Amino acid sequence: MLPLRPFDSLMVKTTQPSTPMVIVAAISLETGASLEKLTQNARTMVSVFERLRCRIVDNRWVEAADFKVPDHLNEITVTPPETLTSVLGMYASEMLPEDRPMWHMTLVHDILADRDILVFRSHHAIGDGLSLVQMMNWIFDIENKDHMESLNDSIDIESGLITPIDSNRAKVHPLTGNDRRPSLNSVISDGGKTESSDMDKKTDNNTAITETQTEEQARDSLSVKSGNSIGTVERRESRGSVGGKSVFANTPASNVAQSATQSQNASDGGGSVPEPLSKQTFDVDKNGQFIQKDSSVDNKKKKKKKKKMNACMFVFRIIYLVLLSPIRLLAIILMPSDPPNMLKCKKGQKVSINKRVSMSEPIDLDRIKQVGRAINGTVNDVVVATTALAVRNFMLDTYDGDESKLPSYIRCILPISLRQPVAKNIELDNRISAVFLTLPLREQNPKKMLTSIKRQMDRLKSFPDAFIVYALIAILVNWIPSRLFIKVQTWFYSKNTILLSNVPGRKQDGHFAGSKVTDMCFWVPLIGNGAVGLSIYSYIDHVVFSCLSDPEVLDNPSQICYEYVKAFDQLELMVLGRNSPNLTPAEVQKKTQATLNVTSAEEKMIRASKILEQSVDVARGVAKAKAAKRLSKAKMARQASTIAAVKGQPQNHKEQQGPELVPMGREGD
């Protein structure tokens, strides 16, 4: 029996009728899926992943003695007027029984849409979204006859009881814990063959030199078996020749044969293995002679230098995190709550038991990557910015375009995986933490919103917020009573409005329950007093956005899903514009005009005021010029009158005034 981890305990303590903490996944299948095939897949899963056979007793994982697979499977048919979304909402609202392992599979036959849907429900204590996706990817990949037959040998089909499969066939991480966990490469291979057996087979087939071979035979065999390795021996003159002469013509073949023979003897247990030929480096002197270089010294120096650099970076990183952690912890604790908005429960309002679900139309993943490359960002940056823009547009439509009612910002909780970047093994657990991200809803320019969110994401990657939250939750879960913990959790999650989860999915087709998997999405459970949970999942070449909400706060979550697709079109237009390879000039002009039509009245007023100010400035300049000209003419007329009076001549004599003077009476002209 193993104790629960901090986030496992968090999910157990958070479980209530209003927050069942159940992850709901909908797997779309081609027609033809059967309950019999589903049962076989389920038995395979529980044979490998032991948490699916365990229940929680006194904060520990205990294997259920009376566990049976059929108790966790059922099959239903959806007929009008009942809809698939209503069925999914019902499953998202139900709690899983605690007297058995907390997971369940339902095969749904949708008559109206002519498709089959597999609804997989799992309590969050069993594993986070990423580990569950890895488990599903693993089961998608092993639907082949040989592997299924070998696994069925260890299953009592009549009783439904499960006998764990041989540990030599699939290294499973048991509750006792020291064995390796199942890897995709070792478990999926046909007939239970391991990677080491495949490597031994390759070594036996590729052994090209024996002790009885001559030097010439050794060179010939090496030229055939070497492939494209660096520095390999080849007899073809098109490669590795100088002036039409092979650089290996004067190579001492005895050395090559001796090296290969030593390698063969060492593999049989006769001594140490020399450096492989593919890793040796060669050079050619001025006379075209073959020279073998000893690269071990250079490699050792490079490795030593790299280790020193890594050690220095590690020390600096630790110092940076130690100095910054108290500041970030204080910032998280003193962070104010989100301003009141339409997606957040009011003060004192409790989350209802019933839930609503919806999903968007798929968006091409290549389009998202193009937008990300345009700003030197990631897919995660783009989908989060699209979410912010969709929430802004949804609120504006609800407020009839009145931006004064729009909150300046809202925060969302982003679950962060604490797993290694490249994980070879699969384990069902909760290795996650969370960070807070601010969505600037008052930002009117979609491109500026995207760059702002990208800066926040980059800054969060350098901050220790995820580790601080993980340590804080571990302390609170283990040392605070449950009632007080619920209050602290409610206060903690009141600092945000929505929960946003982004999980990368498969990149190739899969099969399950005897049918091809065509699409997949999931709904993240609500936690605390949160009323809206948003999920983003990528499958092969597209991305699906899904929403789960409390009907007392958001009765129709499909509106946000609809706005999500529109928001990405708007973001793609503003970032790529005419450079978008997916849009023709006519489409760009049409979308540009549509974007201008939805431009806010405030922006139009600012542009109009600037034009008016420029016009006023021009008019003032013209008026000043005319006034100066009139003043100069009046001055000249007074001077001429003074001169005429001194000489005794009449003032109205035009010839004396000169052609340039203007009479005083004509000043208004």
Distance between the termini: 106 Å
The class by helix and strand makeup works out as alpha+beta
Mean pLDDT: 74
Helix amount, in percent? 40-55%
Largest sheet: 7 strands, mixed
What is the approximate shape?
elongated
GO molecular function, one term: diacylglycerol O-acyltransferase activity
Domain O-acyltransferase WSD1 C-terminal: 430-571
Keywords: Acyltransferase, Membrane, Transferase, Transmembrane, Transmembrane helix
Pfam families: WS_DGAT_C, WS_DGAT_cat
In short:
This protein is α+β, with helices and mostly antiparallel strands.
Q: What does this entry look like structurally?
A:
Keywords: Acyltransferase, Membrane, Transferase, Transmembrane, Transmembrane helix. Residues 169-303, 644-669 are annotated as: Disordered. Pathway: Glycerolipid metabolism; triacylglycerol biosynthesis; Lipid metabolism. One of its GO terms (molecular function) is long-chain-alcohol O-fatty-acyltransferase activity. In the N-terminal section; belongs to the long-chain O-acyltransferase family. By secondary structure, this protein is of the alpha+beta class. The protein is built from 19 helices and 20 strands. It has helices at residues 6-14, 35-48, 84-93, 129-141, 145-152, 184-188, 195-206, 215-225, 253-267, 296-333, 365-374, 379-398, 446-462, 465-479, 482-493, 558-576, 585-597, 601-647, 654-657, and strands at 2-3, 22-29, 54-57, 60-63, 73-78, 103-110, 115-123, 241-242, 245-246, 281-284, 290-293, 356-359, 363-364, 410-417, 432-439, 498-503, 510-512, 515-523, 532-539, 542-549. Strands 12, 13, 14, 15, 16, 19 and 20 form a seven-stranded mixed beta sheet that branches. Helix 8 packs across helix 9 (253-267). The longest helix has 47 residues, at 601-647. The chain is elongated, with a radius of gyration of 37 Å. The model is unreliable at 144-148, 150-261, 263-273, 578-582, 598-602 and 651-669 (pLDDT under 50).
